[in-house]
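A brief tutorial aside. Many learners find it easier to grasp structure tokens once they have seen a single protein encoded end to end. The record that follows does exactly this for Type I restriction enzyme HsdR N-terminal domain-containing protein. Read the sequence first, then the structure, and try to relate runs of similar tokens to stretches of the chain.
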Amino acid sequence: MNLPKIDCNIRKKEGKIEIFDVIRKKFILLTPEEWVRQHMVHFLIYDRSYPKSLIKVESGLKYNRLQKRSDILVYDRSAKPFLIVECKSFDVKINQATIDQVSVYNRQLGAKYAVVSNGLTHYCCEFDQESGKMGFINSFPDFA
């Protein structure tokens, strides 16, 4: 992982490994994508000082009449979407399709920033709401 190590609560229940999600406050089946998502959540909270109370995990959104889910959504203090994060398994290569996926989700949400990560590679983008264009930035945005 290209994210800091996390102090996480893992258990085995009925033969399946689960990890405790500090946002949803429950154990979740530990898949490779969930491992990346939990590392990203911990990174945002403990390394970047994003308020835990403003983070939502697997929130629903509609796109072209289809129900979709964003992996991580961070709101600003005015309850407007600030950052959307799309997590992929560490064995999934980040490509244009994954960048497009988060961009499509963000058309509905209107967050200023977006991140795509597989835990090893991270791409951070800033959206210009007026032009509708997106540009890559060099680091995770600070939470103001």
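Self-check: The longest strand covers residues 66-75. If you spotted this yourself, you are ready for the next section.
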